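Translate structure to sequence.
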């Protein structure tokens, strides 16, 4: 039985019972604001996020999570070699997709929500029909584990990053490789595509830089330097202005996309930052860490808004729902947690 804590404005705590466990949660309050007298402080965005569901079904670490464009379906992938689809509203497991022969490392929905992509340590990327759960095709070409994938905004292309030091751009309709980018690093662990579909960002396990690429030509635009350790996650803000990177140096860095200039460094995690994700309005950044927590950050000020606690082990992945009302996280504790924004 696992226990968590919630600290309310009054300092009280509540316990929630669900899925055979007692949930007892704690949310740190946001940084103090101007004195408002004896009245209670106004709620901030993060202070109103509360636990909604804990999804159990994977038999091993939940490596990555993604939410469909319509916000109805959650996908999770695991070192148990499976992909699971869940009803985001109820937590009901819809189906399990099997076909990979090794760990499944990454998952992504196509922009139209009809196709799911998964990448694996078995060196392949698979495309799945979401309506039927059937495999559409397997993309082969990488020579080592495929760690990260991302769809282009128009859904016509898919990008994959691998331990073979390359990034491949695939034609989704045909399954053919459009081009291969030589990353000049040991391991490509993360990829992301800007909302206008023009720029690709990649991070590496043994390279402290982030590389930006022209997705049309495949040429490297610039290399962003500032982290002191491996860069494990990159994400573009929906407004197209900022790139966020999460690193093994326990920090998140924010970069101005137009110039490559470092805007600020976010510190607060006590262990490796494994995943970063922007809210749909670009105002909030979520980060997942090996310190078992998720942190929410104010993009305007760089201040930490809140820490979400509840996972019993490393948090590998975090994502916002398309409407910004929910957050999903996947952990080494074999669970997915869904957090709801309470109004």
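Result:
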């Amino acid at each position: 039985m696992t226990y968590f804590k919630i600290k309310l404005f009054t300092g009280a705590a509540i316990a929630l019972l669900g899925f055979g466990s007692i949930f007892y949660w704690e949310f740190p309050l946001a940084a103090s604001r101007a004195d408002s007298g004896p009245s209670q402080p106004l709620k901030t965005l993060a202070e109103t996020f509360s636990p909604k569901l804990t999804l159990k079904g994977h038999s091993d670490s939940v490596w990555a999570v993604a939410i469909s464009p319509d916000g109805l379906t959650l996908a999770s992938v695991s070192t148990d070699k499976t992909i699971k689809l869940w009803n985001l509203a109820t937590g009901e497991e819809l189906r399990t997709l099997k076909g990979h022969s090794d760990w499944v490392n990454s998952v992504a929905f196509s922009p139209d929500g009809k196709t799911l992509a998964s990448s694996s340590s078995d060196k392949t990327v698979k495309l799945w029909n979401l309506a039927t759960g059937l495999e559409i095709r397997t993309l082969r070409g990488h020579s080592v584990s495929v760690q990260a994938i991302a769809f282009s905004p128009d859904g016509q292309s898919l990008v994959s990053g691998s331990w073979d030091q390359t990034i491949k751009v695939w034609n989704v309709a045909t399954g053919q490789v459009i081009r291969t980018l030589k990353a000049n690093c040991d391991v490509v662990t993360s990829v992301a595509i800007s909302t206008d579909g023009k720029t690709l960002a990649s991070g590496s396990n043994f390279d402290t830089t982030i590389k930006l690429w022209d997705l049309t030509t495949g040429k490297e635009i610039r290399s962003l330097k500032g982290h002191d350790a491996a860069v494990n996650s990159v994400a573009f803000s929906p407004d197209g202005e900022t790139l966020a990177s999460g690193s093994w140096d326990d920090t998140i860095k924010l970069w101005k996309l137009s110039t490559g200039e470092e805007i600020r460094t976010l510190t607060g995690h006590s262990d490796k930052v494994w995943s970063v994700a922007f809210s749909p309005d670009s105002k909030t950044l979520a980060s997942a860490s090996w310190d078992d927590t998720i942190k929410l950050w104010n993009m305007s000020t760089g201040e930490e808004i809140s820490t979400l606690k509840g996972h019993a082990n490393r948090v590998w992945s975090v994502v916002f729902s398309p409407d910004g009302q929910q957050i999903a996280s996947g952990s080494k504790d074999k669970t997915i947690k869904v957090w709801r924004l309470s109004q």
